[in-house]
Design brief:
4 copies of one chain form a homotetramer.
Chain A lengths: L2 H11 L8 E2 L4 H4 L7 E6 L4 E5 L5 E2 L4 H13 L17 H8 L10 H14 L3 H13 L8 H10 L1 H12 L7 H13 L1 E2 L1 H7 L1 H4 L14 H14 L5 H7 L4 E3 L4 E6 L3 E6 L2 E2 L6 H14 L5
Helix pairs in contact in A: 1-14, 3-5, 5-8, 5-9, 6-10, 7-9
Chain lengths: 304, 304, 304, 304
């Protein structure tokens, strides 16, 4: 059965799952998104594509952006990066500050907020204009020059992001944030605000399935060993305190965001992006997770 | 390059890593094991084998046994099992009792001791003689009829296993241990005492690479979906609080034990077992982890 | 106004507070106690007494017994005792095992269960028949030769005390319990089962108000400095995770038990015991705490 | 023996305790204080005084200031204050953020930094110029019109107070900080910078020994019941995670600061202030605690 066929089947079967989650409502721009939307897009390394539903509607990628900033920072710093941020699952719903305090300001992994702030700090030290570097990478990977920051979202995040302020100051108190707190937060809130659609996002994740090599330019963004490592962190840490559950049900490395997006991939084969804004209590898309679970079950494909 | 060639190369290159760890010394039978031993064995699904070093010397498999008891309990209970034990990484070096208390006696995953005790409790409720069931499964998978419990090790574990006593009583206080505490601990200490060599262990793990199907009898021990799930738990939780590190460096699901054994596999391809008794501070074999890291790096094969 | 007058006034005013708590129900002997009972008894160092209500009905003193065992162990070991148990408030509703694990088996203070088990272990090492020693001390202090263990309560505690089993084994795994686990638990369950009435209990606490000197025999059970220290621990740790609240509202050192008893005192002046079986969510008597709050407010007497 | 005699004896005997601690060094103004200084001053309610050593040298009162701001806020808000901050000991060396996160932004008590920030926030909402209000209160209690903020200290605290920034933003993220973060921190850093000597400090604490009544003006700053409550919190929470130890060894309510000051008192009798800059690992003055322990031991006076 073709990928297009499988995806259309899942799109149809998953309809009863709407209404089981709740759209993120901590900022107005996210709260007013219509909940009953679903986009799916798949892209294989050998050039096949499949799409269903609202695959052309852009949404706020939020934490999915941490994947791209991590790839940039890992390429810049190599394994030195892991002196400042760990690679272990946080294992805690109460992750944010508790573990960070126990572990003296070294975030457990680069996908919890504290870890992502350290990663962004790396970019702030290396680049004069880190926001442009991040945006240009994503545009190039996605093949869309008009992907942009959503300034309204970025401003809202800033106005309400007290917890991230607290995290950043905490990191600074531990000596693990070298740039200005305001500078790092500005970049961070902007990277989270980037708006993409599923088609673009599945393309943008393909370099991870391609062992770190940009699939269109052929540039090795990461070494094969680095790509293995990044993919492993995505699998073990990419879904907050539901990472084990995602590996268990879906069996692919990937990353989610509170905008309702989920991107995942099978190394050597393909990348897939799903978007549906209703979240479960862990902050992951209810419908998105179900789509991906059925995708690996029905294709019999997963990394396991 | 053949697997035999690669393994011999790693065997030779890894020699400088001896002396960096410490043999488990909490019971005499483990403490008197010679530290500078190393066995490696590989077995592919299509029948190739490769061995190096002390691959015929038996050692105490300890926590590796949790893989087999989990497979048995999962087959018996299906997804009901996850009502009593979770699938998330514990994420804590201080895992044992802290999380268990926070989470009201539902162990974070089946590979921390508390979770393994619940799994063993399942077997105690289903079988009159759970010790024989466990031993027979392992003999059949490994193709060796003389694999046995080491009664001296089991007795030593019992005489010194105060922490496991504490865990078992804690589970009982939470209503998550239905058999007698003494019965469950007796089975548990025996399963940990099983002695195998690397050749046997690599064979015994091959059913996991084979999506749950016994590679010699063809019997489906687990469904394909169950095998995916079990493999995912091994990847995210199989190496105590170093699971992220193992996925990151090695990129294979697997399981370690404080006897110095490590077994890992690539679904659809092969299983590999390494044994070297010196442990790092996380309780994982120093040399064993290095061997497996080089194995995936040099073959360019991993699940990522 | 006389103490008798004040106590009668409080007895009358506190009636509306019945029905706000819940009788301990984890063992049948406690569960079947009539909830709407209230006894109050006061005893001054200069020989005055005052009583109200059910002051002659005996109840299970439970954790109040920890005060007497601590006095015995402190007298035996002096300040060496504090190498095995601390003097800081636990500060945690989740005290039992979490802190104990963090702090490597040294209980935070002698009034959490783990600490009381260590104290009982001290007595088990010093005395051939620690149960008789404890009982005889209490009989002598209370002036009642027929105070006894309630064997039904002790047996019920043993049959259901899985959490205490877990704690004792945990302490043993940390090397902080030297006697047999079963021996220590047997003494512990018996000391908790002792039945006394308020009149007896107020007399039995008078030695603490008397700076460690037995008020009837004149024997110095503790030095003045030791008495200061014991009283301080009672104030900071005597009411589980509500110790701050009790100091704040009542302002006297004291000790409570899940049988509904509370004993407190003002050094140099008097001791008072209250019993009412309905407990709040912290395990302290609802009516008992209210009686004592009004007692210090209406008399204008407290240690502050 | 007169108080003057006792204090002089202790002053002499405590000399060997110098060199056992470490002067606070996180800001230059504190780090350059000569370590081998010791001032003692005592003031009774009936007008006696006693002094020894460097009792006229002013030092940074730091956290001792939290006593005065709490008295102000309690007088303003009454028991409503306890909706925003608790009265239980924190019980944790790792108190700052861990408990705060568990308990959703309600600080455990008003003497940990988070709790003191909430108290300061109360003053910021009630007063146009909270800094003057605080300073005027202290001047009036101490009877010294030239007590002032040390602007260098306040500026240094601000420049390095990343952890307090983090705490304040965390409180704001939980809705428990109503004023601007910068405003609250400015007041907080100033109150900590106030410089006083022991003679002034012992006078300034006398209102607490006097059940809330200003001993010179006769004004009731707190009701008798409020004074009891404030004193109880000082006893159970006034010495960070060493509160139990202080109650145990010294047996007086009091408050310490990282400038090396300690103030304590016996209700109805007297207040005493000690200053010596070397701190133990809990942030309390080594020599100061010893002085106070000997004071209660040698006088036979304490609240217990």
């Amino acid at each position: 059965m073709s990928h297009q066929h499988i995806i259309e089947g899942i799109y149809s079967d998953v309809q009863p799952f709407f209404g089981r989650g709740k759209v993120a409502d901590y900022i107005p721009a996210l709260a007013r998104v219509r909940p009953d939307q679903l986009g799916i897009a798949l892209q294989t390394l050998d050039g096949q594509t499949a799409v269903a539903g609202d695959s052309e509607i852009r949404f706020s990628i939020q934490s999915i952006s941490k994947t791209f900033t991590l790839a940039l920072a890992f390429a810049l710093e190599g394994n030195d990066l892991w002196k400042r941020v760990g690679v272990e699952p946080s294992g805690n719903p109460f992750n944010s500050l508790v573990q960070l305090e126990f572990e003296n300001g070294k975030p457990r992994n680069p996908f919890i907020n504290a870890g992502a702030l350290v990663v962004t700090d790396v970019l702030c030290r290396h680049y004069d204009d880190p926001k442009s570097v991040i945006l240009n990478l994503i545009r190039s990977l996605a093949g869309s020059d008009d992907i942009s920051f959503d300034e309204e979202v970025a401003a809202s995040e800033k106005a309400t992001g007290f917890r991230n302020q607290s995290l950043a100051w905490f990191l600074k108190s531990c000596g693990n944030l070298h740039s200005d707190v305001d500078t790092v937060l500005d970049v961070y809130f902007h990277q989270c605000s980037i708006a993409m659609n599923c088609r673009e996002l599945s393309r943008a994740f393909l370099f991870l399935a391609n062992h770190g090599v940009h699939p269109y330019t052929g540039e090795a963004m990461l070494t094969r060993s680095q790509a293995k490592r990044l993919n492993a962190i995505l699998l073990t840490c990419g879904f907050y305190d539901q990472a084990g559950e995602f590996a268990f049900r879906v069996g692919m490395p990937g990353k989610s965001g509170v905008g309702g997006g989920v991107a995942a991939f099978i190394p050597g084969e393909l990348a897939v992006a799903v978007w549906s804004p209703e979240l479960n209590e862990h902050g992951n898309s209810v419908v998105g997770m179900q789509v991906l679970e059925w995708f690996t079950t029905r294709t019999g494909r997963s990394i396991f």
